[in-house]
């Protein structure tokens, strides 16, 4: 029997309310099943025939009835209480149910007028589902009201909390499937309630949907005894409310009671914090909903049980076109919803089926919070000149680039203190990454216990740190997709933890760009620091620059990668990224003292070009170069300039061109990326036939991949990280990977025709310097003075 605990509400559905809720639920179930199976005869106005059935049966039925129940009951409370609400559908493969409900409430037809709320529109809705030229089977960007795909499981709850941050009047319901609940990211995201500010943030109502099974196995949480599951959820800081059963009328009554109980509790917690000043951490409600997998579908097929088992996960009746018995069962199943009572002669939903639906933008499919570009405002970014470092002469002063950026971010945080639409997230690394200036404008969000030794903790803070990269990513994605701005700061090696999450976000943005009704949202901005070349103290485990490779494999219209070589170029790149829309911007910059190369004006011009010649660093003197020294990244830039200085001293007759690349996508052909160079531009910069020695921040083969079509590719020689790492000195890291200045000079001698013999003694000096370095660090534990004290004197 269904049951509800903590009965703080006196909800009792009237017979009329029960009838209309059940009508809506049955209609949604019918529409969900119809999408999986039918491409004609949507209202069953004639007996079902094999020709009415899709040739390929795709989709997921098992979760759909439970999702339909949640949608129905969210409609009821939104309408009754006048709520602004958003729902994150964790079991995103339950796309049929969310599409069905958005069609029922009218938002689907408003978004796609050819799928109107009538018989012809219903046929179109059915036919397009998982059909060539149609829509995906998941809750995707094409689905009105969605901010979460759910194709890859684990991220729903962190997305929901990100949506609720700084949205004090928003209720975010989050349906979590029992399969998704087994993932690591979901398990960590239960702790998000320790960061939710009941004063300035909205509320998240998790709904843990336990239907017992995944594709072929039982679900762990569904098999826990109820008291054990209760203890787990209470340990996470939630107050559970249980609803279970398989009798529709009883479950409707129990679910209505549970929803009202949960919302009464939320209202009380928010009132206590906002009006009464209660500061204790809130224990928010969670609804545990247990219903059978594939509820109301075929109980048995071919002599084996289906409803309530893993067999209901996808398509319960798979042989409908070939097997007359399956066809008979499908027709009986669809007719069990009594569609003739739910849709009129024209195929329009009847009044009972629509009675619970809210109006206007309160409909879940119409909420602007699921189309955040409608709400986003430009960030108030101050003039960069206030934060720029003075550069009278390149390569003589040093600053920590990310510390300079921190000053800019502090001002942005300060200037958004009233509007609260900018956040910085990261896994315990804001101060480590030299961004601690932001704490002067906002502390770190924290609702748990405070101790006297703690610093910068703030119940109302907008800096968020949790040692779960997945949760940081999920928070920021939910925050951005609902119309706000942010920055994710992370150690370069460990951002790989969210490789798969950024895949999904890039796919979401790419698809959204093709939908005219989706307004552009603020870009997802990564600041990757504590990078490979300055993890000499932490060693091999902290040395991996491959996130850039991963991102540059993705949709070119969405991804951007920047390697600013100094503080002022970092400011310029960050300014561009924070202003941008619908991108994933990856910025790799060091936090250790770094030479200042360009003034602010020079930095702006250089970043606008994306790649350019540094005339002051080379020795072309207006003629054609003998060799091009190219660089991308702060440490490679320093090594290239040091190599150029050595060449100036030892081979003064050699014409050297120095090229710095800030925007990595500039290396791609224009046909493959909007920022790419034409062949004419590329050849002008790198030449068609001269040796190019390229010192690159990451794995060297990426440069070859980006430039392999270019005329001069055969002359391109790239030095970069080649998995030679350890705990050592900073300069030894570049020596171990053959990226050091001496190796670069040797490369020039080896590749410029005629130098091998003429400059043999210079090459020998370079080899000797590398050996001297090797011996020195093993005695002194520090780099050679000529390296440690080096400055540019070109």
UniProtKB/TrEMBL annotation:
Report if keyword Lyase is assigned: yes
All copies of domain Xylulose 5-phosphate/Fructose 6-phosphate phosphoketolase C-terminal, residue ranges: 591-792
Give the UniProt keywords, A-Z.
Lyase, Thiamine pyrophosphate
The coenzyme or cofactor needed here is: thiamine diphosphate
Q: Does the keyword Lyase apply?
A: yes
> Organism's domain of life?
Bacteria
The EC number of this protein is 4.1.2.-
NCBIfam families for this protein: PRK05261.1-2, PRK05261.1-4, PRK05261.1-6
By sequence similarity, the record places it as follows:
Belongs to the XFP family.
The molecule here is called Probable phosphoketolase
């Amino acid at each position: 029997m269904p049951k509800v605990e903590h009965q703080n509400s006196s909800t009792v559905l009237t017979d009329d309310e029960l009838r209309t809720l059940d009508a809506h639920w049955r209609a949604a179930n019918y529409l969900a099943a119809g999408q999986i199976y039918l491409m004609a005869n949507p209202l069953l106005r004639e007996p079902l025939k094999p020709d009415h059935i899709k040739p390929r049966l795709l989709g997921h039925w098992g979760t759909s009835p439970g999702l339909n129940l949640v949608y129905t009951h969210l409609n009821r409370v939104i309408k009754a209480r006048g709520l602004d609400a958003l729902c994150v559908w964790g079991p995103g493969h339950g796309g049929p149910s969310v599409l069905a409900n958005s069609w029922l409430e009218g938002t689907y037809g408003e978004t796609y007028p050819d799928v109107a709320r009538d018989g012809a529109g219903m046929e179109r809705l059915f036919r397009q589902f998982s059909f060539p030229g149609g829509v995906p089977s998941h809750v995707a960007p094409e689905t009105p009201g969605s901010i979460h795909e759910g194709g890859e499981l684990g991220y729903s709850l962190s997305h929901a909390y990100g949506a609720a941050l700084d949205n004090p009047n928003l209720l975010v319901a989050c349906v979590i499937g029992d399969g998704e609940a087994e993932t690591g990211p979901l398990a960590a995201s239960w702790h998000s309630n320790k960061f939710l500010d009941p004063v300035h943030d909205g509320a998240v109502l998790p709904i843990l949907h336990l239907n017992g099974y995944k594709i072929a196995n039982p679900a762990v949480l569904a098999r826990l005894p109820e008291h054990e599951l209760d203890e787990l959820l209470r340990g996470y800081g939630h107050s559970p409310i249980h609803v279970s059963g398989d009798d529709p009328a009883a479950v409707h009554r129990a679910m209505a009671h549970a929803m009202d109980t949960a919302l009464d509790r939320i209202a009380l917690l928010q009132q206590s914090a906002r009006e009464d000043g209660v500061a204790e951490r809130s224990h928010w409600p969670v609804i545990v909903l247990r219903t059978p997998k594939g509820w109301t579908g075929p109980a048995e097929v071919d002599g084996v049980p289906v409803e309530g088992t893993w067999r209901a996960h996808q398509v319960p009746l798979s042989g409908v076109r070939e097997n007359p018995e399956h066809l008979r069962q499908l027709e009986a199943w669809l007719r069990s919803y009594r569609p003739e009572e739910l849709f009129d002669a024209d195929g329009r939903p009847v009044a009972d089926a629509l009675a619970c639906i809210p109006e206007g933008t309160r409909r879940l499919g119409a909420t602007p919070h699921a189309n955040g570009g409608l709400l986003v405002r430009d960030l108030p970014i101050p003039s960069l000149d206030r934060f720029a470092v003075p550069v009278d002469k390149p390569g003589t002063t040093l600053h920590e680039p990310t510390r300079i950026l921190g000053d800019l971010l502090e001002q942005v945080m300060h200037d958004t203190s009233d509007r609260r639409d900018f956040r910085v997230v990261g896994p315990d690394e804001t101060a480590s990454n030299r961004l601690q200036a932001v704490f002067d404008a906002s502390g770190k969000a924290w609702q748990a216990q405070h101790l006297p030794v703690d610093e910068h903790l703030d119940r109302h803070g907008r800096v968020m740190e949790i040692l779960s990269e997945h949760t940081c990513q999920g928070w920021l994605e939910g925050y951005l997709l609902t119309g706000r701005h942010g920055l994710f700061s992370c150690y370069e090696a460990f951002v790989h933890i969210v490789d798969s999450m950024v895949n999904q976000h890039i796919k979401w943005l790419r698809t959204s760009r093709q939908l005219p009704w989706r307004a552009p949202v603020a870009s997802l901005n990564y600041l990757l620091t504590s990078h490979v070349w300055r993890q000499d103290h932490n060693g091999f485990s902290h040395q991996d620059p491959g996130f850039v490779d991963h991102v540059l494999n993705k949709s070119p219209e969405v991804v951007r990668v920047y390697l600013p070589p100094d503080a002022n170029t970092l400011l310029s790149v960050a300014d561009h990224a924070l202003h941008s829309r619908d991108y994933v911007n990856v910025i790799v910059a060091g936090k250790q003292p770094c030479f200042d190369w360009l003034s602010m004006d020079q930095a702006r011009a250089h970043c606008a070009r994306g790649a350019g010649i540094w005339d002051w660093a080379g020795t072309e003197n207006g003629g054609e170069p003998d060799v091009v020294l190219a660089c991308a990244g702060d440490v490679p830039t320093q090594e290239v300039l040091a190599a150029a200085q050595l060449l100036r001293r030892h081979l003064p007759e050699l014409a050297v061109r120095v090229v710095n690349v800030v925007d990595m996508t500039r290396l791609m052909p224009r046909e493959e990326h909007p920022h790419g160079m034409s062949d004419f531009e590329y050849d002008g910069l790198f030449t068609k036939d001269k040796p190019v020695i390229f010192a690159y921040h990451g794995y060297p083969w990426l440069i070859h991949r980006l430039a392999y079509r270019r005329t001069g590719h055969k002359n391109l020689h790239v030095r970069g990280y080649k998995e030679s790492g350890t705990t050592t000195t900073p300069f030894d890291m570049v020596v171990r990977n053959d990226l050091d200045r001496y190796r670069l000079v040797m490369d020039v001698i080896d590749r410029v025709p005629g130098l091998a013999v003429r400059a043999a003694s210079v090459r020998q000096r370079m080899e000797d310097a590398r050996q001297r370095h090797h011996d020195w660090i093993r005695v002194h534990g520090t780099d050679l003075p000529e390296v440690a004290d080096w400055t540019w004197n070109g």
